[in-house]
């Protein structure tokens, strides 16, 4: 197999460009098979129209490195395209990058023991001025685009396609990054389309915030969530704008997920001008998230007030407006804080939700004790100083708003319409 690999040739071109002060390494039309590549400062990897960069799914081609996996220190196979501590790195062009994910996914499904965690497709760490533009990214072994502790990140015009049943193949996951723009992308994946993250309590370094994030003009299909915050949020997430996007067939629309022990603050989110179709639940705020390590411990799902400290997550100042959602199946929204740390200052304005004609019952939030629902109204508890106004629900079954005893100073103006 090794005789047709172009790894050494492409890597040598990248290294020569870096040694000369920077430049463009061009991948010409045709199929180019390779192993892991490492970008250097001031180098742009450019795929011409018709170029296809195929990463061969042989673990020996991806050296094991010390990095992180889902917010915790881990040994992972080096990402297919990787940079660490670089400046002005870019992947551009109208060509296609294929991660060869199927063999990696088969190993996960079979329960095979890998030497290290699967490689992501593109991961830039501790880097500045990162650009990913126009390329087609498909069949990622794990997360597709993963900037980690980067500053000045731009992902634009990118098309991401991973099969709906491919495990952990999130689209774009900025983690503990600053000044991020994700625009004009089309994302169709097997997990969250975009997930904003900020490390966990298990991080080897002090968790750093993910802040100043703009997501605009994107279409998102089939993923578990359109735009998700968490569950890794120990370092704080703040200053996020999500606007002018379409979510079609995602399990949830906008989802915030965390749990006790994780700490961190999510604040100053503005979500506006969104169209959703065929989603189970348009809005989810879930601080009882049970997936991952320690997610099944009793304190995670406990609905009684526990002592609050620095490990108690905080969510506040979330503004949602001008959203329309059709063919919704589960409920209009699942919005909950913790009894010891209620959500604060949540606003939902000018939202129209229409339920499917024959909705299939499903669980709106991944938390113990949440039942299946079909065409239910807003489920709200442990919130304060919040309002819902100018909201209409068509085809809702039962009350438009079900507010629990932990809802304080909540104003809800919701109109229920028959079909």
Automatic annotation (TrEMBL):
GO biological process assignments: carbohydrate metabolic process
Species in which this protein is naturally found: Candidatus Microbacterium stercoravium
Record keywords, A-Z: Glycosidase, Hydrolase
The protein's name in its UniProt record: Glycoside hydrolase family 28 protein
MF (Gene Ontology): polygalacturonase activity
Pfam short name (any one): Glyco_hydro_28
Family the UniProt entry places it in: Belongs to the glycosyl hydrolase 28 family.
InterPro entries: GH28_Enzymes, Glyco_hydro_28, PbH1, Pectin_lyas_fold, Pectin_lyase_fold/virulence
Superkingdom, natural source: Bacteria
